[in-house]
Design goal:
alpha/beta, binds adenosine-5'-triphosphate, about 220 residues, nine-stranded mixed beta sheet, Rossmann fold, binds magnesium ion, single chain
């Protein structure tokens, strides 16, 4: 992997373990950020309001704002449509590739960060791309276009294997159950310390895995 490449990251942990809180603190410094929350949570809306993020009210609105700001900076929150959310993700990823074309052609250094909260809803294990392969292309080929994708979920065993097999970094809070622990460890090259450790982490502690190294990180 080169410095220029985007990264795939997973933020895992059971309900209330601190995933969104962590994401909010880590992401806020990104200049070109799109947050997509399938749970449409009040906590993201509040965070967006407090941090002057643009709240896109429809896919059309989101597309307009992205296209208008394609060469500059943006921080946007979007709640996908309750019925068509997965189709929207396909279309959105196609657009993100277009926006990042100058990056791929080495005419730009502006990356793009896509954060998906409750990612098991966007890219589930079963039938992951019913509306087209935009999201698949983003997770398997987005790096060279400077596209970083971060998935957050309490159910790592329920997200697509395409994502799990391609992930570069894992940040995991306490998970509930052996299936989740196994799935997290599998994303970390079957690391045994992770498989054991992730079941009894203290509140808001997480394990951070990248390139074969595990680090225990205290609450931020
Ligand atoms: N490091 C922390 N220090 C203090 N409070 C925290 C920390 N992390 C999370 N919290 C608090 O714990 C609560 C749950 O956190 P958060 O919403 O991030 O969990 P989550 O993993 O995203 O849960 P869910 O799966 O329900 O979305 C929130 O009220 C949050 O403010
Ligand atoms: Mg959350």
């Amino acid at each position: 992997m080169q410095d220029r490449d985007g990264v795939l990251m997973a933020i895992i942990g059971k309900k209330g373990s601190g995933k969104s809180y962590y994401a909010q603190h880590e992401l806020i410094n990104n200049d070109r950020l799109l947050v997509v929350d399938f749970k449409r949570s009040a906590s993201w809306k509040r965070f967006a309001d407090d941090n002057n993020m643009y709240f896109a009210t429809s896919l059309a609105d989101l597309v307009d704002v992205l296209v208008d700001n394609r060469d500059g900076n943006f921080r946007i929150l979007y709640f996908p449509d309750a019925v068509n959310g997965r189709q929207e993700m396909h279309e959105l990823c196609k657009l993100i590739f277009k926006i990042q074309r100058p990056y791929m052609e080495l005419d730009s250094d502006e990356k793009f960060t896509l954060f998906i909260d409750e990612a098991h809803m966007a890219n589930p294990l079963h039938d992951p791309y019913p509306f087209g392969t935009g999201l698949l292309e983003a997770i398997t080929m987005g790096r060279e276009s400077g596209i970083s994708i971060i998935y957050s979920t309490q159910r790592p065993q329920r997200i697509s294997t395409d994502f799990r097999e391609n992930v570069d970094r894992v940040c995991t809070f306490k998970v509930s159950g052996k299936n989740a622990a196994k799935a997290v460890a599998a994303m970390c090259d079957d690391n045994e310390d992770i498989e054991k450790g992730v079941l009894d982490l203290k509140d808001y502690y997480h394990l951070y895995y990248e390139g074969g190294d595990v680090e225990l990180v205290p609450p931020i």
